[in-house]
Write a structure and sequence with these properties.
Helix 19 links the parallel strand 6 and strand 7. Helices cover 60% and strands 7% of the residues. The mean pLDDT is 88. The protein has 570 residues and is an alpha/beta fold. Helix 2 crosses helix 14, helix 5 packs parallel to helix 17 and helix 11 crosses helix 12. The two termini are 56 Å apart. The chain is elongated and about 110 Å long. It has a five-stranded mixed sheet with strand order 5-6-7-8-9.
Length: 570
């Protein structure tokens, strides 16, 4: 089996010459992206229903490993907002251990996709499907932030969207002004700071100011208190329960021994794997689509070309390894990749350095990170949801796209919000495929050419008919195309099927043609296939078709086929 070459982008970068200037540029880019990834990784882990350190471990292990093994020079991988919709229900139902095990299984699927060279197939997911579920994911993520934005007291967040809305509405009387103020301050800085300067990442400024303001207000205003990472999360070290996140690097663990929904070790079993299989498939599918979409964006910004199969293989290895260090699902992150490019990244080492920056922050700043307000992290994710919603594209498609595409868009959006992304993508792809087949059937067909075609230098003998077959013949179009051959006028001795406009055919078309031949042969009509292209010719050869004296002849040249038809009357 021909495996995609791992570390292709890194080897290409080093092969073209890599000096101190490139190293300096990658170090600076890695530092900037690391600063951006630090709060995002924690916020996304919290949104997925696990302690924040697991998001940091994802950025460190998966982010560094995928960068070194991948097929894109500047892509940055880690936890992303799109995964929240999938990961949150898994962690609620199966606990941290189930989430890590599902990530491991998704890694195996991604490796298989890379080895099978399926990187290009992801490009065939229709735009209305991706836009619909992306906008739906943004709505769900935004809804999940309402609890911490307003400081609501919710006993348990339900799994389904409508139930969540009901729980949030019932909890509105518990709104805390302190959390609303800190969230508003953070959100205002996140929106306004890029207009001041882009040299210092906005999330760094906004979260630092939000944490500082909350600490000062708690010190000088009696009764002022907001939820923070250290008040919400705890960890166990040497038998002691401590607040915040641990000041330790990612350490080896067995995913199936991590806590399940009841807090006890999960333990692996075949029924558990069977239950996690749909979730693993969803993680792999979304991870493949998002990472390759991010790589395409990076190609457009840099002019380099990524290898999709190598990137899928690297994403698979990253997601296979990261659960053994407590990390959750990772994929290519468009916003962090764009930041990496704008910061001057030249090779995959920039993304690797970003992982080292996150690691250094964990080791040096873990106690300070515990002071980050939950309201500030919710404000950050709310802005992320707003940016990923693609609202302009969504509205434009509603205005200008064909009704069938609008229907696919709205169905994918609604299913993502009300059910989950697996259902949305599955139904969306099936609907889009059916619509595509319908459109292809409309453009494919067979028509009787006039008795004296303009392309011929002299008229055909009486008793010879030419039928022009237009468009690819596959299971969606073959039946309709062959309908024209059901009845042929009496007196016809030769029928020429002009296949010059048929680039491809499948088994259904093969059966349809054979049925048409049988009907024509019963009427003593000789059939000539003219202008047969390469792919249809291969299909016919595998089916055992060959020239049959007095019944069938096959020619790649249309002109030669017409000459043979004339000879039949000489």
């Amino acid at each position: 089996m021909d495996w995609p070459p791992p570390a292709l982008a890194l080897r290409q970068s080093l092969r073209k010459g890599y000096g101190l200037a490139g190293l300096r540029a990658d170090l600076m880019a890695g530092m900037v992206v690391g600063v951006v990834a630090l709060p995002l990784s924690m916020a996304l882990a919290i949104a997925a229903g696990v302690p924040p350190q697991h998001g940091l471990y994802t950025a460190i292990v998966a982010g560094g490993l995928i960068a070194l093994l991948g097929g894109s020079r500047v892509q940055v991988s880690g936890p992303t907002a799109a995964f929240v919709v999938i990961l949150s229900p898994i962690s609620q139902r199966f606990g941290l251990g189930g989430l890590l095990l599902a990530t491991l299984m998704a890694g195996l699927l991604l490796i298989a996709m890379g080895v099978a060279r399926m990187g290009r197939l992801i490009e065939f997911v229709p735009y209305p499907v991706t836009t619909g579920f992306t906008a739906g994911i943004a709505v769900v993520i935004g809804t999940l932030q309402i609890k911490d934005l307003l400081g609501l007291t919710v006993e348990a967040m339900p799994e389904h969207y409508l139930d969540r809305l009901e729980a949030l509405a019932l909890a509105l009387p518990s709104t805390r002004l302190e959390d609303v103020l800190i969230a508003s301050l953070t959100l205002a800085l996140l929106i306004c700071w890029p207009r001041v300067t882009t040299r210092i990442p906005g999330p760094l400024v906004a979260l630092a100011v939000g944490a500082g303001a909350a600490a000062l207000a708690a010190r000088f205003i009696p009764g002022f208190e907001v939820a923070t990472i250290q008040s919400r999360f705890h960890y166990v070290l040497d038998g002691a329960t401590l607040p915040g996140i641990p000041r330790t690097p990612p350490l080896p663990v067995l995913p199936w021994n991590m806590p399940g929904p009841d807090g006890r070790p999960l333990f692996i079993s075949f029924p558990l794997i069977r239950l996690l299989a749909p979730s693993a498939f969803a993680i792999a599918l979304l991870g493949a689509m998002e990472s390759l979409l991010s790589a395409v964006v990076a190609d457009g910004m840099t002019g380099f070309k990524h290898d999709p199969d190598v990137e899928l293989l690297a994403q698979g290895v990253g997601n296979l390894v990261v659960p053994f260090f407590g990390g959750i699902a990772a994929t290519g992150a468009i916003a962090r990749t764009a930041t990496n490019v704008r910061s001057g990244a030249r090779s995959p080492l920039a993304a690797f350095f970003h992982a080292l920056v996150v690691l250094g922050a964990v080791l040096a700043l873990a106690p300070l990170l515990g002071y980050l307000p939950m309201a500030s992290l919710a404000a950050l994710l709310l802005l992320v949801a707003w940016n990923m919603s693609e609202r302009d594209h969504f509205v434009r498609m509603l205005r200008v796209a064909p009704r069938s595409d609008v229907a696919v868009l709205l169905i994918c959006f609604g299913l993502t919000v009300l059910f989950d992304m697996v259902v949305a993508v599955t139904v969306g792809v099936v609907l889009a495929s059916l619509l595509f087949m319908k459109r292809m059937a409309e453009v494919s067909g067979v028509r009787l050419v006039e008795e004296h075609p303009l392309t011929l230098d002299k008229p055909l003998p009486k008793g010879v008919l030419i039928y022009e077959v237009a468009g690819p013949l596959f299971f969606g179009a073959a039946h309709q195309a062959m309908a024209a051959l059901k009845e042929v006028d009496t007196g016809v001795r030769v029928v020429i099927l002009d296949l010059r406009s048929v680039p491809a055919m499948d088994a259904t078309a093969l059966v349809g043609l054979e049925s048409a031949f049988e009907r024509l042969h019963r009427d003593q009509i000789f059939v000539i296939l003219a202008g047969v292209q390469t792919q249809p010719l291969r299909v016919m050869a595998r089916a055992g078709w060959r020239d049959r004296h007095g019944r069938l002849a096959i020619y790649r040249s249309f002109e030669r086929a017409v000459d043979e038809a004339r000879k039949a009357f000489e």
